[in-house]
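Duplicate of #3305? Posting structure anyway:
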C-alpha cells in the first residue's frame, strides 16, 4: 500500500502545480489593467483628486474636526464655538501656522434655529467681508434632513484657487437617540455668501458641491466594481 500511495502523491503534484499556475494566469488575464476609482455624481467632487492643495488641507482638517464636534455635542449637548476651538487648538479653526498657510479662512458658526453667524474667530482681519444674514429664524431649523443643522462656514480664504466651505452637521432620529451626520461642501468662489437653506438640493442649486472622502470602504467598492 505504501508504494501505491507514494505513486499517487507523485502523480498529484504536477496536477496541483498546473492548477495553481492556471488560476494565477486567469487572475492576471481577467483583472482590469487600470481600475478607475468610483465616479462622483454631478454635484459631488472627490477629495483625493478633485481638490487643490489648500482645499485638500482644509478638507483633511475638517474630517477629524467634525468627529470632535459631534463627540462634544453627544457629551455636552452643546457645540464647539470658535472661541472654544482656539482654546482646544482645533484645526482648521485654530489660527496657527496651518491656518496661515492655507488661506487664513474666516470661519463662522451658525446654530440651528438662528441662521445668524455667531462670534467670529478672535483676531480675524477686518478685511474679511462680513456674511449677510439671509433668512428667517426658522430657515436653518428646516435644514438638512428636516431636523435642523449646525454649520461651520468658512470663506474669504486667500490661497490661490481656494473655495468656500461648509461643514454641515445635520440631526436625525435613530430609534430613540439623535444621530449627528456631517457632510462637507465647497463652493468655487471663496467669497460665496452663506446659503439661505442647507438642504442638499438647495446647496446644489447655489453651486455648492459635496466632497466625497476616499476611504477603505471606497477602495473595497472600487475593487468589487472592477472585477
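Output from current build:
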Amino acid at each position: 500500500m505504501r508504494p501505491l500511495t507514494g505513486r499517487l502523491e507523485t502523480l498529484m503534484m504536477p496536477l496541483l502545480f498546473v492548477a495553481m499556475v492556471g488560476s494565477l494566469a486567469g487572475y492576471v488575464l481577467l483583472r482590469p489593467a487600470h481600475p478607475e476609482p468610483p465616479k462622483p455624481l454631478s454635484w459631488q467632487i472627490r477629495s483625493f483628486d478633485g481638490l487643490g492643495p489648500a482645499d485638500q488641507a482644509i478638507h483633511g482638517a475638517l474630517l477629524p474636526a467634525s468627529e470632535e464636534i459631534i463627540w462634544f455635542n453627544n457629551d455636552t449637548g452643546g457645540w464647539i464655538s470658535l472661541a472654544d476651538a482656539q482654546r482646544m487648538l482645533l484645526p482648521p479653526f485654530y489660527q496657527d501656522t496651518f491656518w496661515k498657510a492655507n488661506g487664513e479662512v474666516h470661519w463662522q458658526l451658525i446654530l440651528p434655529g438662528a441662521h445668524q453667524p455667531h462670534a467670529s474667530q478672535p483676531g480675524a482681519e477686518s478685511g474679511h467681508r462680513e456674511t449677510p444674514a439671509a433668512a428667517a429664524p426658522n430657515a436653518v431649523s428646516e435644514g438638512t434632513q428636516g431636523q435642523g443643522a449646525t454649520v461651520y462656514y468658512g470663506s474669504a480664504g486667500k490661497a490661490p484657487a481656494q473655495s468656500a466651505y461648509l461643514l454641515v452637521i445635520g440631526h436625525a432620529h435613530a430609534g430613540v437617540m439623535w444621530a449627528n451626520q456631517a457632510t462637507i461642501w465647497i463652493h468655487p468662489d471663496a467669497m460665496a455668501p452663506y446659503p439661505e437653506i442647507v438642504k442638499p438640493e438647495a446647496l446644489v442649486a447655489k453651486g455648492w458641491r459635496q466632497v466625497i472622502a476616499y476611504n477603505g470602504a471606497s477602495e473595497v467598492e472600487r475593487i468589487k466594481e472592477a472585477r
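Confirmed duplicate; merging threads. The chain is about 35% helix and 20% strand. Residues 103 and 158 are 4 Å apart (CA to CA).
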